[in-house]
Amino acid sequence: MINAGGLVLKRWEPAWAAALVEVVRASLPELNRFMPWAHQGYGVEDADAFLTTSASDWERGTAFNYAVFTAIGELVGAASLMTRMGPGVLEIGYWIHSAHTGQGYATAAARTLASLARSLPGVDRVALRHDAANAGSAAVAGKAGFVEVDRFARSVEAPGESGVAVLREWR
Ligand SMILES: CC(C)(COP(=O)(O)OP(=O)(O)OC[C@H]1O[C@@H](n2cnc3c(N)ncnc32)[C@H](O)[C@@H]1OP(=O)(O)O)[C@@H](O)C(=O)NCCC(=O)NCCS
Fold first, then answer.
1. Is 70 touching ligand 1 by the criterion CB < 6 Å?
2. What confidence score (pLDDT) does residue 5 get?
3. C-beta 143 within 6 A of ligand 1
4. How many domains does the chain have?
5. What is the pLDDT of residue 36?
6. Does residue 8 sit within a domain?
């Protein structure tokens, strides 16, 4: 469990599948643009699969997915630390329930996870990737202290993507 200002980040638990479905479905118009997994029919099977994978990723040490709660226990999104960029790098990801955006939640989660990740032994860089068309994620990343270090072409996987990825590092 991680305290992030007014938020609490907790390792996902299987019992939260129904709550996850509710939050994802309420946020589909925004999530769907940039998150390939957020399809129109998102349901409990998808949530169960995510939670099962999250548990095994955690055991293997490949990704650390957290549910994001307010201080009064509302589920307002998700944030993660991932090792997929290779040794010495932790990559951050996040999304926020559309009814709770604009309150600094993504920024607080990203900044807190970045600071924590950088303090871990063996972690040289904390990185974040977003599509160049994702103005919201770009604003969050900049505000949380991530600076752009590269841009590169990648395949378009979600309807809002431009095919240009922005790579940022936390400074
Ligand atoms: C993008 C997203 C994470 C923003 O979450 P949030 O909790 O509202 O972000 P914050 O409140 O911390 O906002 C930080 C800054 O970003 C700005 N911002 C947020 N969304 C924005 C948008 N869509 N367009 C432009 N600026 C945006 C805010 O105005 C704020 O700046 P300000 O304080 O100067 O006003 C959220 O809308 C989301 O989950 N989007 C869909 C999923 C996604 O794209 N995830 C990232 C994938 S890389």
1. no
2. 85
3. yes
4. 1
5. 96
6. yes
Exposed, middle or buried: residue 140 (CB in 10 Å: 0-12, 13-18, 19+)? buried
Residue closest to 33 by CA, chosen among 136, 158, 168: 158
Cβ of residue 52 lying under 6 Å from some atom of ligand 1:
no
Identify the domain containing residue 112 by its residue range. Answer: 2-127
- Both structure tokens of 32: 């769907």
| Ranges of residues in the chain whose predicted pLDDT is under 70 | none
What gap in Å lies between CA 108 and CA 3, rounded to an integer? Answer: 10
Mean pLDDT of the chain: 97
| pLDDT value at residue 34 | 98
pTM: 0.97
Specify the pLDDT at position 121. 95
Residue 168 counted as domain residue: no
Question: Is there an atom of ligand 1 within 6 Å of 145 CB?
Answer: no
From the CA of 77, give the closest atom in ligand 1.
39
